[in-house]
Amino acid sequence: MMFNKKKRWHCLPGQPLTELDKKVMYWESKGKEVPTRQLIKTPEQIEGIRRSGVVNTGCLDEVARQIHVGMNTQEIDDICMQYCKEHHAIPACLNYEGYPKSVCTSINEVVCHGIPKKEDVLQEGDIVNVDMTTILDGYYADASRMFIVGGKTTPEKEQLVRVAKECLEIGMEAAQPYSFVGDIGHAIEKHAKKYGYGIVRDLCGHGVGLDFHEEPDVTHYGRKGTGMLLVPGMVFTIEPMVNMGTWRVFIDADDPFGWEVITEDEKPSAQWEHTLVMTEHGVEVLTY
Asked: Which of 103, 107, 196, 277 suits a disulfide with 80, CB 3.0-4.6 Å?
């Protein structure tokens, strides 16, 4: 089926066709969704995103060093804000479409966009996702990690956290040059279903680097050969949200900001995320 009759890939005027041009134009002629040239980052832009990724990783490392039973999630926000200040970076979440904090802290059944607050005190056995996006010199990097508070939880939660990380890794393996976004989602969903888990459909990964959210939408479910063509130079996140039960979610009615997403059956959820650049040989992680 034709994706869009309007041509998206435009060759540089007066320049001979490159191998990249030929490959993208081939798939576009087959009716596939292809990126615009603007989504292909230059080497200089990739290095800028990589530098932002170093700060992002350092921030999450600092959270890992300090997180403990009895701390509240506002303290996590304070750690991230202070780390950004010390490294001349900006937390992208702060004031983004009304979001009031610098980081997202999502505990147990909160899937994502959990708002840090003093009332949310971490208990032993909680699982918490800390999702950080940094801006350094205008470049964005986005990553999240799961933490098991106190280092030990139930076998069921421990398995969920592990499988969610495996889903990210499997999605990264499926992301090959000139494959499709749907290949990523197909691989992730197939692995999650082995455990009876649901993959959230209402939220997805995304292009990133020069802005917080760019094309393409990177869904974590789907069919092979669908979605946008993945081309070397594209930068995007993979961030599967894996629910212990149903994939369905709702927005917490008690959240005055309208951000916190919760599993419909209120069973736990887990998520891991990296910012990745597509190369000629597969993806390279920019947020290790």
From this structure: 103
